[in-house]
Amino acid sequence: MQKQFNQLPHHLITSGKFAIEREMLRVTSEGTLAVTKHPKALGHKATHPYITTDFSESQIELVTPTFPTIEAAHHFLETLYDITALNIGDERLWPQSMPCALPEGGTIPLADFGVSGIEASRYREHLLQKYGAKKQLISGIHFNFSFSDEMLSALYEGSPEQNRHFKDHLYLKLVRQYLRMRWLIVYLLGATPAVHASYEERCVSQMQALHVDTFSNKQALSYRNSDCGYTNVEPLYPNYATLSSYIDDVKRFIAKGEIANPNELYSPIRLKTSKGGNDLNQLEAHGIDYIEIRNIDLNPFEKTGIARSDLRFLHLFLLYLTFTKETSHVDWQAEAYNNQQRVAKEGMSPASILTRDGYAIPLHTYATELLDAIDSFNTQYDLGFEDVFPAVREKIDHVDRTYASRLKTIMTETGYHAWSLAQAEHFYEDAYANRFRIHGYADLELSTQILMKSAIKRGYRVDVIDRSDQFIRIRNGKHEEYVKQATKTSKDNYVSVLMMENKTVTKFVLAEHGIRVPEGVELQDESDLRQAWDSFSKQPIVLKPKSTNFGVGIHIFKDGATYEEARTAFQYAKTFDDVVLLETFLPGKEYRFLVIGDDVAGILHRVPANVTGDGTSSIRQLVATKNEDPLRGKGYKTPLEKIDIDEVVISFLRAQGKTPDSIPALDERVFLRENSNISTGGDSIDYTDQISDIYKRIAVDAAKSVGATICGVDMMIPSLDDAQIEYGIIELNFNPAIHIHAFPYEGKERPIGEMLLDLLFKY
């Protein structure tokens, strides 16, 4: 095997499958344990594949799917965090592994899985009685890792029936090695140097006060990984020589009553099978498919609970452990356990001593030599992890750079509770700022991201089939839907799309159904314009391409136009389509109605791109300042689009006697375009609750007239006074952007992604 490993290309060595689980407590706005039920907005905890509970009803657990890269898994975890943080009302997510302020003798609600989860409830009752609720509320990160099938195939030589034994052997070696060296991860990622005063009295009584609510022995790095944390009553050492010996030992522990089931073996690393997780019978039948690292504290400096750089180092560490020689020290499990305890409770001490194969060695010396070996391994096989070493070396050489030491300093100054609650609020604000994004998919249009995020919230599976074409698949059980650009779905037929794309056909069909539309003609060349001009020359007009969206190529003349102005506008529109429409301009404000099925999901008034003067800045400078808004971007990946100063803007300013370098007066509002499309920098104002149901019915009828299920209806309304119903529909859009309704510039945000899923899956 070693010879083959030496010959593997580095990309194959580093290939694998990665998933992350993150536990965390829900707390009240005051920072005490929230005793409310698992939020309904997050779905059913027993069936949701990504968001569930752990020991307590108050303890959220996030579970990512398996990904081929750490980056993808980490992005998904961040998305799950954002979804959770934004759907628990006024509660917040506690950033620490060790619990928040806990009630003395008060209720800590166990996770309730209902009738179908009786066994799970009984197991939690067992844990409650044996270990106490406070210990069970400790949270952490679990990192799931497996080698890629391609790498295992490249390494394996032998008959197919022996392949499983080869894989088991490889994972068992990794487990043994990790157990030996796990103290290094406790040192580097330990982030529980103190506990709240309300934590278990047996532990707190052995500590000193750092602050009025904060206790520690002042040298601890990770109480979570100590005897005050998540451990069995006594250390248990199963035999990891073979899979069968491991299974036999765990069964023996259960038979003797030392643990109730395999899940109660609180090992820093677990053997898992994809056919049944930690179930011993499934493990015996199918073999080891992946391992689960369980001794990682939540990093309260990170919103996700773990830095991506730390995950990368952990990946390299696992590779190193797998493909380097084991020692033959007999009493290695007890030594490994004792090393973990020393680092966990005394790791900040400069005099910390560990043992290596039975011999004493200073922690710093051991860590430095081990890191040097990992560095050499990375260099030898050109694995590409050079970027992770500087931060790791800094922590080894300077204990005050460790997460635990930094936390101890902060908690000594501000206290455990105050800082942790402030961090929880800070991470909530970050989640809110990213509420319209799904992390890792910034290249997708925002409407697509919104739909994907809504699907993930419900626990649906989402696959990106073609990123460049915004083509995704959403699955809920056996029901699957293919969606392009968020609103091109199986619910609309092809001819409806063609009808809406052709503005002439749209107007014809709407008029036949008694729906008001502007009068107009088609122009193919300038002779058509000259022939029609007498009929339109003395009234407000619009010239626009026949078959474009997003307001491209449109010129609006509210006060009429000269023939030369109309001809220039015609020539510009002609660059986007062979046919140009000349129409009467309908008076009033323009509103976008988003029709989904039989309902109007949202209504917007779109204000043309504009700036407001400050008395000193030029229009160009004001545009640059407005474009700095984080909600503005390019390519429909943010709720608003940046404003471009193009020829249309320059022409429109010229008509006002201005240029981009003009300086507007204080509070003077300057419009930069006639058309109000968000795609050209306009502002979106929500009017869904201000507009009469009469107009909503008209919009739905307009969509139905062309057979559309998802449709954008652009309607001109002179007045919102119901006394006189006046309107005109100027356009239907077959691919309406949903992000402008989900996240308007002003007004109520609408759950459009949820509404689309309701339509697609009859939720």
What secondary-structure arrangement, pairings included, does this model have?
Blueprint: H1 2-7, H2 10-13, E1 16-27, E2 51-53, E3 59-63, H3 70-85, E4 92-93, H4 118-131, H5 133-136, E5 141-147, H6 149-155, H7 163-189, E6 195-196, H8 201-204, E7 208-211, E8 214-216, H9 243-255, E9 269-272, H10 280-286, E10 290-296, H11 308-322, H12 332-346, E11 353-356, E12 359-362, H13 363-380, H14 389-397, H15 403-414, H16 416-433, H17 446-458, E13 461-466, E14 471-476, E15 479-484, H18 494-501, H19 503-512, E16 520-523, H20 526-536, E17 541-545, E18 555-557, H21 563-574, E19 580-584, E20 589-596, E21 599-607, E22 610-612, H22 619-627, E23 632-633, E24 640-641, H23 647-655, E25 669-671, E26 683-686, H24 693-705, E27 710-717, E28 728-733, H25 739-742, H26 752-761
Parallel strand pairs: 23-24
Antiparallel strand pairs: 1-3, 1-4, 1-5, 2-3, 5-10, 6-8, 7-8, 9-10, 11-12, 13-14, 14-15, 16-19, 17-18, 17-19, 20-21, 20-27, 21-26, 22-25, 27-28
- Mean of pLDDT: 93
Which term fits the overall shape? elongated
Number of strands: 28
Percent range of helical residues:
25-40%
**Cα-to-Cα separation, first versus last residue:** 52 Å
The residue ranges in which pLDDT falls below 50 over 5 or more consecutive positions are: none
Kindly provide the radius of gyration, computed on alpha-carbon positions and rounded to a whole number of angstroms: 32 Å
Keywords: ATP-binding, Glutathione biosynthesis, Ligase, Magnesium, Manganese, Metal-binding, Multifunctional enzyme, Nucleotide-binding
GO molecular function, one term: glutathione synthase activity
Subunit structure: Monomer.
Pathway: Sulfur metabolism; glutathione biosynthesis; glutathione from L-cysteine and L-glutamate: step 2/2; Sulfur metabolism; glutathione biosynthesis; glutathione from L-cysteine and L-glutamate: step 1/2
